[in-house]
Amino acid sequence: MSRITIDEVKHVANLARLAITEEEAEQFQHQLDAIISFAEELNELDTDHVEPTSHVLDMNNVLREDEATKGLPQEEVLKNAPDSQDGYIKVPSIMD
Amino acid sequence: MSLFDHKVAELHELLHKKEISATDLVDASYKRIAEVDDKVKAFLTLDEEHARQVAKEIDGKLGRDEQKGQLFGMPIGVKDNLVTKGLRTTCASQILDNFDPIYDATVVSKLKEAETIKIGKLNMDEFAMGSSNENSSYRATRNPWNIETVPGGSSGGSAAAVAAGEVLFSLGSDTGGSIRQPASFCGVVGLKPTYGRVSRFGLVAFASSLDQVGPITRTVEDNAYLLQAISGVDPMDSTSANVSVPNFAEGLTGDVKGLKIAVPKEYLGEGVQEDVKQSVLASLKVLEKLGATWEEVSLPHSKYALAAYYLLSSSEASANLARFDGVRYGYRTENPENLIDLYKKSRSEGFGDEVKRRIMLGTFALSSGYYDAYYKKAQKVRTLIKQDFENVFEKYDVIIGPTTPTPAFKIGEKTKDPLTMYANDILTIPVNLAGVPGISVPCGFSEGLPLGLQIIGKHFDESTVYRVAHAFEQATDFHKQKPEL
Question: Considering only CB atoms, which chain A residues are within 8 Å of B363?
Answer without folding.
Answer: 12, 15-16
